[in-house]
């Protein structure tokens, strides 16, 4: 245990987490706070009621420059990046030759460059993948001198505007380079909770200063990875490695919306033959919301059965939703069982327990669309 | 009889030959907000160190093991309605189940309060 600890990476906010009483756990190679003294449930409810500050510095930040950056990146993702105006952000995924998902990511047109945010556990592989596949005329810069934090919740805009009034004008999935409390930041109005809020890229050497300023506001509490997970699950958002991975395609993952119209017509991204065929003819399974009828949560890898007792799929994320005050889950089911309202059973501890396929999200999104 | 404690962080209180079992304050603090408790069925025969119950927090499910051999005679149905009782009053109202014991001498293998306190401090 002690040996593992010494090898863990630390974010620029690590000392602050420890000072705040964060319970530190290894996550994607980093020593990260899973919860603070408020506890997972309290942190979750606080974020939905006011504002929560999350350290997501373990995620990878990458800048692509060069004349052909858009066309070259489009070979690796099914999104329409050419149509993204400066200052706009899009959710996308790196696909594989077999049409499955290598990682999901955020792509921002930052004007003179593309700014990408990729998952912590995938970032090394993503960078190898990009370096191997992005052609001449694209330079990749791994941004390792910046931390990343998220301020999420209905009070996030009010709080952040005290330090940078311009943030109220940003709309959901928009980006700006702004000074926050005099610190040069990249700000995106986005997040992973279903709430309004921001993701803020800040120089490592100013990160703690900014975090302390934000936490100094009455509305803001520090939030750990535990509540980050319950919040995103209630919001119906995928966790890479659980809900999407190299065994699932975007169509199976119910992410058809990330395959934009022009890309559907033109293809030209990895795995396009598989993905476009599934778009046209349908996939044989789909990611859906699952609501257990009782109070017992169903965790990942729980078998999903039809009412005849036959296995039709598996839970990929499952737990308890503090806002909906009930167990919630998502998982994959055979396509004939994917319609909301379909009754299924979940095998929890050897006992079939009734559940229902439901629409996602469990907690409504409250993004600021202007 | 004074409470006894197991290394799995259960407390055991024997009264008139029936043992009441719950999890300790240390255990509930480690688990965090408890959202569901699955209790054994009345009449179920439990084996020392075998599965007895499951507690679920927002984060994860954790097994509760039987600290003694015996048979379940009563369960705390209040936990079905209000699992947070385990956080609020782990060693009183948040008890899990009651069991008749096969062999009361097994109690001698458990820790008393002072020994449990030392055990927890050593973790």
Automatic annotation (TrEMBL), chain B:
Residues 18-100 form the Lipoyl-binding domain. PROSITE patterns: BIOTINYL_LIPOYL, LIPOYL. It comes from Thalassospira lohafexi. GO terms for cellular component: cytoplasm; glycine cleavage complex. The modification N6-lipoyllysine is found at residue 59. Binds 1 lipoyl cofactor covalently. Belongs to the GcvH family. Keywords: Lipoyl. The glycine cleavage system is composed of four proteins: P, T, L and H. It comes from the Bacteria. One of its GO terms (biological process) is glycine decarboxylation via glycine cleavage system. NCBIfam families: gcvH, PRK01202.1. The gene is gcvH. The glycine cleavage system catalyzes the degradation of glycine. The H protein shuttles the methylamine group of glycine from the P protein to the T protein. Gene3D superfamilies: 2.40.50.100. This is Glycine cleavage system H protein.
């Amino acid at each position: 245990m002690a040996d593992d600890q010494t090898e863990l990476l630390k974010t620029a906010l690590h000392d602050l987490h420890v000072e705040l009483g964060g319970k530190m756990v290894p996550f994607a190679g980093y020593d990260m706070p899973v919860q603070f003294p408020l506890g997972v449930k309290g942190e979750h409810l606080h974020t939905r009621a006011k504002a929560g500050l999350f350290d997501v510095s373990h995620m990878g930040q990458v800048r692509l420059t060069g004349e052909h950056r858009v066309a070259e990146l489009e070979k690796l993702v099914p999104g329409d990046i050419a149509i993204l105006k400066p200052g706009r952000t899009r959710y996308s995924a790196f696909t594989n030759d077999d049409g499955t998902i290598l990682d999901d990511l955020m792509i921002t047109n930052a004007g003179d460059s593309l700014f990408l945010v990729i998952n912590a556990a995938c970032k090394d592989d993503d960078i190898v993948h990009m370096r191997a596949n992005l052609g001449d005329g694209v330079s990749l810069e791994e941004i390792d001198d910046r931390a990343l934090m998220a301020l999420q919740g209905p009070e996030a805009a009010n709080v952040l505007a005290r330090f940078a009034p311009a943030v109220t004008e940003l709309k959901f999935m928009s980006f700006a380079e702004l000074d926050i409390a005099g610190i040069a930041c990249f700000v995106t109005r986005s997040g992973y909770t279903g709430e309004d809020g921001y993701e803020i890229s800040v120089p490592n050497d100013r990160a703690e200063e900014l975090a302390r300023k934000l936490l100094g506001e009455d509305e803001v509490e520090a939030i750990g990875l535990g509540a980050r997970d319950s919040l995103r699950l209630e919001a119906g958002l995928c966790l890479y490695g659980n809900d999407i991975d190299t065994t699932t395609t975007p169509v199976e993952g119910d992410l058809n919306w990330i395959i934009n119209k022009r890309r559907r017509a033109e293809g030209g991204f990895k795995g396009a033959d598989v993905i476009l065929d599934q778009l046209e003819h349908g996939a044989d399974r789909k990611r859906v919301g699952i609501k257990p009828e009782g109070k017992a949560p169903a965790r990942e890898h729980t078998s999903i059965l039809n009412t005849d007792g036959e296995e039709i799929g598996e839970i990929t994320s499952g737990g308890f939703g503090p806002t909906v005050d009930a167990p919630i889950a998502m998982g994959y089911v055979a396509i004939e069982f994917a319609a909301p309202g379909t009754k299924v059973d979940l095998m929890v501890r050897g006992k079939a327990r009734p559940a229902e396929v439901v629409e996602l999200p469990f907690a409504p999104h409250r993004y600021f669309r202007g | 009889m004074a409470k006894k404690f197991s290394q799995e962080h259960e407390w055991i209180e024997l009264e008139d030959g029936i043992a009441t079992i719950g999890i300790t304050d240390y255990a509930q603090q480690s688990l965090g907000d408890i959202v569901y408790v699955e209790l054994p069925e009345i009449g179920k025969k439990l084996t020392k160190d075998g599965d007895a119950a499951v507690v679920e927090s927002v984060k994860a499910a954790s097994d509760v093991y039987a600290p003694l051999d015996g048979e379940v005679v009563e369960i705390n149905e209040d936990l079905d309605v209000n699992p947070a009782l385990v956080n609020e009053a782990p060693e009183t109202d948040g008890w899990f189940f009651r069991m008749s014991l096969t062999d009361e001498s097994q109690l001698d293998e458990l820790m008393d309060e002072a020994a449990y306190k030392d055990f927890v401090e050593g973790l």
